[in-house]
Write a sequence for this structure.
């Protein structure tokens, strides 16, 4: 036998030995579906207490999920929030503080994404919808661990195909499939949900990781006439359109969940649902009972609806009140897939997210996070248990107890100087360990968000 034949035979024997183990291991690995809404108001779902918006599919999902009531994203605006979500790390560690990285900036190419991590465990991966982590080809999702991408590279866009405004060559908000512009028919939210189903149905014995990143209900406010008719009881036309957009997203999610049930994969799929930040001032959303909105450090900007549905593992309808972060989704999913979250960290690149499985299973009765931190350019915040500190450049500090005062109505900084000073020192130590921001934002955002922070601190809602 010559060397080539012997080598080929040896490879064949190795594959024969490994493949049965790989198939057995794959059968034990749950699929992972990460669903992200865009600029969704904290109150604006049925299970969140909305008085005027219906979300029957998400309500049904919530009734069979673990619902986290003290859950946060890592930023109150889109791009840095997504960077923290997909790396499991404070995005400030790699300079991704500000929103909308200008061309050609994007998320640090040396950072491993959730797709990279899941792919290392044998998963097939897809990103569907809004990317917003860099518009250049070297930042493209298929260069960041995803096998395939269907969606837009940046920001928000209209919900119908529009070759004049959005869907023209070179526009980073055009819909693409793996780098090539594509036409689509119908309402974009429905299209994205169907794309997720189509990927799930591709023939494969490998488990899947799907990142389904809706543009809804981010502006522009645009809904179908049929969906608008359902919300004629809402007098405010903007709120009516926004409600119809949430309804469409709920419908698309329901179709994906129903499909997983039909193919007998729902019990073997971890489904996460959350928003990238709080509701915005320009999309008629409601963050009640929270103060603030997208772009600022009050709870309305960073506390979000947050569900984990894994009916094959956890009992239905649980409420979890311990503080968690969007950064926890990666290490938790990685651990559930058979990986060791410890291997994701090294001395220079710690993963800040926590594997939630020991806490959810009862093996650990402690807290996933005692402290969490936020910072973007001119504004900072931190949590230490129930205590919340907010810093506004050129103004100073505010202190709240969000366990007693979730609406952040009573600033305790002057009455509790020792606690305030201790948290200020803690937050500053954390900021010293972060990298310098790689880009900034226009000063108009400082002026607008500073004004809104101060208004709320001084008693305006």
């Amino acid at each position: 036998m010559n060397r080539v034949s012997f080598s080929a035979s040896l490879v064949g024997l190795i594959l024969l030995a490994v493949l049965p183990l790989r198939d057995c291991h794959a059968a034990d690995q749950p699929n992972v579906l990460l669903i992200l809404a865009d600029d969704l108001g904290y109150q604006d779902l049925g299970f969140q207490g909305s008085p005027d918006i219906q979300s029957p599919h998400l309500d049904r999902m919530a009734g069979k999920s673990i619902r986290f009531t003290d859950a946060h994203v890592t930023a109150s605006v889109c791009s840095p929030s997504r960077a923290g979500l997909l790396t499991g790390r404070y995005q400030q560690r790699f300079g991704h503080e500000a929103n909308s990285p200008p061309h050609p900036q994007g998320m640090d190419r040396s950072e491993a994404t959730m797709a990279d991590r899941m792919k290392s465990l044998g998963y097939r991966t897809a990103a569907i919808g809004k990317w917003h982590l860099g518009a250049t080809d070297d930042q493209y999702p298929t260069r960041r661990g995803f096998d395939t991408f269907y969606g837009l590279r940046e920001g928000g866009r209209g919900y119908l195909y529009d070759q004049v405004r959005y869907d023209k060559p070179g526009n980073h908000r055009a819909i693409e499939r793996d780098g090539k512009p594509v036409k689509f028919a119908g309402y974009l939210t429905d299209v994205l949900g169907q794309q997720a189903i189509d990927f799930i149905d591709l023939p494969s014995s490998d488990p899947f990781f799907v990142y389904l990143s809706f543009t809804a209900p981010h502006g522009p406010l645009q809904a179908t006439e049929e969906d608008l008719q359902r919300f004629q009881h809402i007098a405010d036309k903007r709120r009516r359109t926004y409600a119809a957009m949430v309804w469409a997203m709920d419908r698309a999610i329901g179709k994906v969940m129903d499909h997983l049930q039909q193919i007998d994969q729902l019990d073997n799929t971890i489904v996460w649902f959350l928003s990238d930040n709080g509701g915005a001032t320009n999309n008629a959303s409601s963050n009640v009972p929270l103060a603030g909105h997208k772009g600022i450090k009050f709870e309305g900007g960073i506390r979000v609806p947050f569900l984990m549905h894994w009916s094959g593992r956890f009992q239905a309808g649980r409420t979890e009140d311990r503080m968690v972060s969007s950064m926890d989704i990666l290490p938790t999913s990685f651990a559930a897939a058979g990986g060791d979250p410890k291997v994701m960290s090294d001395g220079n690149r710690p993963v800040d997210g926590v594997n939630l499985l020991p806490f959810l299973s009862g093996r650990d009765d402690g807290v996933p996070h005692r402290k969490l931190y936020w910072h973007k350019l001119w504004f900072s915040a931190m949590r230490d248990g129930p205590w919340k500190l907010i810093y506004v450049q050129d103004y100073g500090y505010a202190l709240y107890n969000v366990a007693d005062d979730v609406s952040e109505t009573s600033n305790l900084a002057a009455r509790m100087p020792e606690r305030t000073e201790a948290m200020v020192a803690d937050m500053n130590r954390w900021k010293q360990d972060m990298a310098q921001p790689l880009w900034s934002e226009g000063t108009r955002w400082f002026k607008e968000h500073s004004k809104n922070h101060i208004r709320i601190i001084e008693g305006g809602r």
Observations:
- The two ends are 82 Å apart (CA to CA).
